[in-house]
Amino acid sequence: MQEMQTAAARRAAEAAAAGYVLDRLEAVPRLVGRHEDFLIVTGLAGTARDIARLTGDGAHAYLLGGAMGAACMMGLGLALARPDRRVLVLTGDGELLMSLGALATIAVMNPPNLAIVCVDNGHYGETGWQRSHTGLGVDLERIAAGAGIRATRTIADASGLEEGSRFIREGNGTCFVLLRVAPTEPPAYKRNLDASACRDRFRAALLGAR
């Protein structure tokens, strides 16, 4: 236990020095704001638990599990299918690193109702808290901009959260936000892992939100 605490303290100190200081338990809810404004697709693990807690495991949120790398393209399909609704993809740095090509396709399609938020803690929290590519210097906002997404932001302190919340609700094209947070555990929220039930309730919410 002491070794784990020491490792966590060392990880936190290194991350703070690199600018990963926001508390995700506060930053994600402040950035998302009124979650009912969106149909939501999340990555697995941390971001799924962020949104499960924020929405109370709401029917308008589809929380991935075991499908790493799929969130952005699912969000794109949803945004194209429902141009009358704003779609939010909330994913992590590890999940997005598995599907960077999705950013190029999204940039070309450029649906105006799609917002992508990458919660970047610079670590692979699911597999032992190894430093991720972003923790070693890869900048996912620059990659998104290089792929052709014209509206991008990096938010690394609390002063940017209010403007970021407006940013993901406005604009004439897809937007991308890199939210840098400290490498701490996501909410301890017990989400529904019945894939069929989650699919059916999201489909009902999707078809009913007209």
UniProtKB/TrEMBL annotation:
Domain Thiamine pyrophosphate enzyme TPP-binding: 64-177
Transmembrane segments: 59-80, 87-109
GO terms under biological process: small molecule metabolic process
Entry keywords, A to Z: Decarboxylase, Lyase, Membrane, Transmembrane, Transmembrane helix
One of the Pfam families matching this protein, by short name: TPP_enzyme_C
GO molecular function, one term: carboxy-lyase activity
InterPro entries assigned to the protein according to its UniProt record, in alphabetical order: THDP-binding, TPP_dependent_decarboxylase, TPP_enzyme_TPP-bd
Gene3D superfamilies attached to this UniProt entry: 3.40.50.970
Protein name as it appears in the record: Aldehyde dehydrogenase
Protein's organism: Caldovatus sediminis
